[in-house]
Specification:
Elements lengths: L4 E8 L2 E15 L5 H10 L3 E16 L22 H11 L2
Antiparallel strand pairs: 1-2, 2-3
C-alpha cells in the first residue's frame, strides 16, 4: 500500500464529489499503535491506520457525475476500495486542475 494514492470522496451539494487525495507513506497494523490510537481504530471499526506522505485538498470539489465514473452504479460508501489504473487516476487529477 505504501506509495499508493488515495482519493477522498465526500457527499457535497452537487452529490458525491472528489475533494482531495493523499499519498500513503506507511500502514500501521493495530498492534503497532499506541493504546489511544488502538481505541480510535476500535471505535471506527478500522483494521489499520494510514500515515500519509502528503494530503491535498482540491480548491473546488469535482462531482463524480462529471468524470468517467458517471456511468458507474456506485454511490457513497461503495466507492471505498475502488481500484483505478494509473491513467484513470491521472485523468481525474487533471480534471481537478481545470
Amino acid at each position: 500500500m505504501r506509495g499508493q494514492t488515495i482519493l477522498f470522496v465526500h457527499k457535497t451539494s452537487v452529490g458525491d464529489a472528489l475533494v482531495g487525495y493523499g499519498l500513503i507513506e506507511k500502514v500501521w497494523e493495530k498492534d503497532e499503535l499506541s493504546e489511544q490510537d488502538k481505541d480510535a481504530c476500535e471505535r471506527g471499526s478500522w483494521k489499520r491506520a494510514l500515515e500519509f506522505q502528503y494530503v491535498r485538498q482540491f480548491e473546488k470539489p469535482l462531482a463524480v457525475k462529471e468524470t468517467f465514473l458517471k456511468g458507474s452504479k456506485l454511490r457513497g460508501r461503495y466507492f471505498h476500495g475502488l481500484k483505478l489504473n494509473k491513467n484513470q487516476l491521472k485523468d481525474l487529477l487533471a480534471q481537478t486542475e481545470t
